[in-house]
From TrEMBL:
Domain of life, per lineage: Eukaryota
Gene field: Ndufaf4
Region (Disordered) residue spans: 17-41
Coiled coil: none
Gene Ontology BP term (one): mitochondrial respiratory chain complex I assembly
Name of this protein: NADH dehydrogenase [ubiquinone] 1 alpha subcomplex assembly factor 4
Composition bias type Basic and acidic residues, residue spans: 17-27
One GO cellular component term noted in the UniProt record for this chain: mitochondrion
Record lineage: Eukaryota, Metazoa, Chordata, Craniata, Vertebrata
Protein's organism: Tichodroma muraria
Family listed: Belongs to the NDUFAF4 family.
Ranges annotated as spanning the membrane: none
Subunit organization: Binds calmodulin. Interacts with NDUFAF3.
Xref: InterPro entries: NDUFAF4
Amino acid sequence: MGGRVTRVFRNFNVENRASREISKEKPTPAPRHRTARLDTVADSPEIKEKVLRKDDRFLTLLRDVYVESRDPPVQVKDGGGEHFPSKQEEKRLTKLGHLEALDVKKVSKGKISLVEALTLLNNHKIQPQIWTAEKIAAEYSLELKEVNSLLEFFIPFTVLEFPKKPKKVITSHEPKKLR
């Protein structure tokens, strides 16, 4: 509601106010300082002479400078549009079990997929004596340091079901009287 009120006041008599501002005479700008004028500087003969004069000392220094540039050899690219990795990475098949349709089939060594990460975290949570960090590192081709930090900082969610509380049963069916 406040926006409507301010809009009414803002738009009140807009056309007349705009035409009044447009019809005002433009203010004259303040006079500039005499050194700020470029036309007087360009007219002085001393400055023109300094600009056009050649300095022999600078010319000799300039002649001593020698720049040599060479372009790198041009390499012709085979336009197949295919990208070949410079280093062939070793791949391993994922260990997914019944979740095979949810994830990728091949993963680089030293990495794991998301489903594998959740699986190994859940296995370690359920049976920490069997699924130790060393066994997980050997099973999934990972570094032991990375597995330890993975087990320390990432914990899978747990679903807790609270027991239902028994509902209170009303013994009497008499309505309460209001006083």
